[in-house]
Structure formats: C-alpha cells, structure tokens
Amino acid sequence: MSAFIKGGANCVLSTLWTVDETSSAWLIIYFYQQYYSRITPKIALKNAQYWLQTVNNHKLVIWLTELLEDTKHKEIDPHVIELVQDEINKYKQRNPNNKRYENPYYWLGFIVHQL
Fold it and tell me: Which of 9, 21, 60, 92 sits in a 20 to 30 Å window from 28, CA-based?
C-alpha cells in the first residue's frame, strides 16, 4: 500500500480481510461512481458501504441493468458482461426485498488510506 502512495496515488482502497468477490465488485463500482462525481474517497467509501448494506435485490437488478446499458458503447470484455447478466438473473429469482449484502462481512472490511 505504501508503494502506491509513494508512487503518486492519492489514495488506496483496501480490505482488512478476504471478502466476497461479487459484493466487492459492486462496492468498488459504486465507490468509483461516487468518487468520479467529486466526492472525497472517504465519503465515497462510506456511501458505497451504506449503499451495499441497504440495497435490496430489486434495486440491484435495476442498478446492474443500468450499468450494462451504460457500457454498451465501451470496450468491455464479453465475459464480464455475461457474468453481470448472470448475477442479474440470480437476483431476479430471489426475494426482491431481501438485502443480500447487509451483513457487515460484505462491506465493513474496506478502508481508504490517504496522505
């Protein structure tokens, strides 16, 4: 981590433990959506953690569908698109009100390091 900071990175997002790869992907994408809208890294992470904790399956389907729509004209690996579509289909089959990632295991382990 210190190598990234010494190398010129403004901040480093890391985890305190091994976390689920799917929930990590959603949290990081949401984090960057926040960060690119000019929110500080620490607030962007806080927002992403809160979002992941509270988002239900129905809202995940909507968000992921919009995400795929936004990537239509970008060079994205077709395998990644297929993986996201598979996740959308899984969420559609589950209880729409279920908050799949509300357990702190999925979001609490992320931290931002800044100078």
Answer: 92
